[in-house]
């Protein structure tokens, strides 16, 4: 049974949580600031306290507790992955720009796991970061709510939220431009009116939905219908793209000569499948990738890559940091084609 919320209009305290969880205020404090293992608090107790804290909309409030009298000069960032050039360059650039402002950056990778994102946000809040940046978070608004309750500013990067300022790429415009390029490059190999194949990403996240929109826009502009079966947004992981292509090829003897691939992570699965299946014979299909890695150009022929403008995204992000902006809004940064 879900615990009743405390009275409307009154901020939930550690003592309220202790009463609801059947634990001591000291135990609640240790769980919320991430030191519960050192205090030998059981995992089941910690999980119960965190669940009740979420239900009560509570985050550790350093300002209210009098522990945050001055700025810490710490700035935190949550990233979903380190294993592609895009997120790696974001993390590296963030560190450089933070230090140039006299801020100390703290960065952690959460593997696109919503629970790890919240755990990381709580830990950074407990360490008194002045600002928390959620990069590619699965639920950025939940992170904003936690930060706001603790008096900490938050910003979103790569994926937008409704409650805090967000900086993202122009996903729809970039996808439309990339689709035009692939259509033109693959025209000699495509049948009349044949569409491209879209591979990778998750239809429920903003970036993939916008890229699918741009993909459709470019096809409509060219007078080409897009078959729903050719939108393979089965996830970012290489194995998911590979399996989606295997399943589609089993149903359709001939796949489109041109592919729109949603990231270099998905591209890995596409290339694995293409080489193992020999579906396209001795020639690689025409590929456009909404992501960039210089190695990809030497791994396959007939590829064009779209680069997200990380320096411009970070410059806009730190404009928001410097101005202490808190009003929700989305800044879209144009993409650019990678040099051949």
UniProtKB/TrEMBL annotation:
Question: Matching InterPro entries, A to Z?
Answer: HTH_LacI, Lambda_DNA-bd_dom_sf, Peripla_BP_I, SBP_2_dom
Q: PROSITE patterns under this entry?
A: HTH_LACI_2
SUPFAM superfamilies named in the record: lambda repressor-like DNA-binding domains, Periplasmic binding protein-like I
Source organism superkingdom: Bacteria
A molecular function (GO) term: DNA-binding transcription factor activity
| Protein keywords | DNA-binding, Transcription, Transcription regulation
Q: Where in this chain does the record put each HTH lacI-type domain?
A: 12-69
What's this protein's name? HTH-type transcriptional regulator DegA
Organism phylogeny: Bacteria, Pseudomonadati, Pseudomonadota, Alphaproteobacteria, Rhodobacterales
